[in-house]
Amino acid sequence: MAVPTFVDQVTLHISAGRGGNGVASVHREKFKPLGGPDGGNGGPGGSVILRVDPDVTTLIDYHHGNKRKADNGGHGAGAHRNGAHGGDLVLPVPDGTLVKTTDGEILGDMVGAGTEMVVARGGRGGLGNAALASSKRKAPGFALLGEPGDEIEVRLELKVVADVGLVGFPSAGKSSLIAAMSRARPKIADYPFTTLVPNLGVVRAGDVTFTVADVPGLIEGAADGRGLGHDFLRHIERCAALVHVIDTATIEPGRNPVDDLDVIENELSRYGGLEDRPRLVALNKVDVPDGNEIASMVRDDLEARGHRVFPVSAASGEGMPALIYAMGDIVGQARAARPAVETTRIVLRPPGADNGGDFEVTESPEGWRVRGEKPERWVRQTDFSNEEAVGFLADRLTRLGVEAKLAKMGAQEGDAVLIGKPDDAVVFDFKPGIEAGAEMLGRRGEDERLREERPSSTRRRDIQEQMPERSETETRADVARRIDRAGKAAAPKTVTSSGIGPMSYEIGSKDDPDRDDE
C-alpha cells in the first residue's frame, strides 16, 4: 500500500484533559483539635492547541493517527495542596490551515507563523473543602469533582499559502517551470497527471522573494469533480496572482492555446472567488519549432484580451527572467497593499445551551428539562454519593431560581427534572418547598433538613416573637415564664401506660385519682 507524502485534509478527534477532583480533608495535628478544613483544589486539565509552524507543510502526521488527548489535571490533597495543572497539547499545523466542524462550519483560519487556536479547553478543577468553607459552613465534609474537558471533532483543510499559482492542463509544463525557477525538484514525466500533489517552489526576483504553487490535474469539468483539480483548486485561493501555463506544442487533436485558456478560465469562474486575481499567460515550450510558431500566432489575440503574455521555455530558460520579474512585481504590489499579518490566538468558546442566560426550562415528554451553563457544570461537579454534596447542589440551584421557575411553569411534586444534555442528563424528582441551606448541616455527611426541628430553637423563636408585645416591667425571663405557663396549661393530661395516671401526685390535687370532685 502506497504511503502518501502530502495530505491536505484530515479529520481529528480531539479531547481536552479532565480537571482534577478537589479533596475533603481536616487538618490534624497533635494538641490542636478542630484544625479546620484543609482540602486542596484539583488542577485544571490541559487544553488542545493548534499552532502554525512554518516548518510543517503537510497534515500527514494526523493522517496516520487522528486522535489526540491532553493531560488530565491532578487531584487535590490535604494541607491545602492543589493538584497539578494538566499539560497543554500543542499540535503543529501548516500555514494556511482551515479549521472546520464536520458539518462544514468554519471555526478559524490559521494564517501567520505562531497563530494559535484553542480548539478544546481543559476542564476546571474541583474545589476542595477549604475553598468551600464559609462563616455558616465552617467544615464542609465534601468537595467538588473536576469537570471533563471539551471533546470535539474537527476537519483540517490545508490551503497552501503561495504568492503565485500556476494553472493549466496536465502536461502543460507547470512542474517544469517550478523546477526552472526554484530549487524545487518535482516529478516530471511525459504523461498526463504526473503531478498528484501541489508543488511549492521559492523564487527570487531582485529584492522580492515569493512562493509559487501549481494545481495538478486541472481539466475541463474540474469544478464538477473531474480530474484532480477539484481537490486542489483551494490551494490557489490565497494566491496574489495566477499564471496560465499553456502548452503550445501539444500533440492532442483539437487543442489550441486560446481554447485552453478559455476552458481553464471557465473552471476558475465556476469555482468562484478568484475573479480579482491578476493574470499572466505563459506560452510554454517555445523551444519546440511548432510551439514557437503557434505562440507567435496567438500572442496578439491574447494581448488584445488584456493579458500580459510571456513566451517561455522551461527546458532552455528562454523568457524565464521576464516572467519571474513580472510575477515578483505583482507580488510586491500585493504585499504593499495588504495589512500586516499579526500573530493571533483564537479560543473556541462554545455558546451556552441558553444562549448566554443563566438557564432555561422547557417541558418535554421525559419531564422538565433544565439547560444552562451553570446548572450543568454544577451537576458535573457533584459527588452524588455524598449527601452533603447533594444538599449543596440543591442550595445552588435554589439560589439560581431553578425551583421557583419550575413551580411558576406548573411543575408538580414528583415530576421528573432533567439537567444536562439529552443524551447525558441527570434526573431528579421535583420536591418544592424544602428549605435550602447547606449551612444548616450538622455532622459532615448528614443533612439536618431531614431531621425534626429542635425544641430549644422553637422556644427561642417564640420568645423573640413575644418580645415586642411585653409590658414595660417584663423582662425576657418573664416572657419565657409566661410562654411556659401557657404551654403547660394547653398541654394534654399525662397518662401512664397503665392508664392510672402519673406515678407521683399531691393528695387532693387534680392529679389525685382518689379525689372526689362531688
State the main characteristics.
elongated, five-stranded mixed β-sheet, 19% strand, 518 residues, 19 strands, 24% helix, six-stranded mixed β-sheet, alpha/beta, single chain
| Overall radius of gyration | 40 Å
Major β-sheet annotation? 6 strands, mixed
List the total number of helices: 12
Low-confidence stretches: 352-356, 435-452, 495-503
Alpha carbon gap, first and last residue: 118 Å
Secondary structure class reads alpha/beta
Strand-residue fraction? 15-25%
Helix content: 10-25%
What report would you give on this structure?
Helices cover 24% and strands 19% of the residues. The protein is an alpha/beta fold and 518 residues long. The radius of gyration is 40 Å and the shape is elongated. Helix 11 packs across helix 12 (476-490). The chain is built from twelve helices and 19 strands. The strands form four sheets. Strands 10-11-9-12-13-14 form a six-stranded mixed β-sheet, sandwiched between helices.
Summarize this structure briefly.
The protein has 518 residues and is α/β, with parallel strands linked by helices. 24% of the residues lie in helices and 19% in strands. The radius of gyration is 40 Å and the shape is elongated.
Question: Can you lay out the helices and strands and say which pair or pack?
Answer:
Elements: E1 9-15, E2 48-52, H1 60-64, E3 67-69, E4 89-93, E5 97-101, E6 106-110, E7 116-120, H2 129-132, E8 151-158, E9 164-167, H3 174-181, E10 200-205, E11 208-214, H4 229-232, E12 241-247, H5 257-271, E13 279-284, H6 289-304, E14 308-311, H7 320-337, E15 345-347, E16 360-364, E17 367-371, H8 373-380, H9 387-400, H10 402-408, E18 416-419, E19 426-429, H11 455-466, H12 476-490
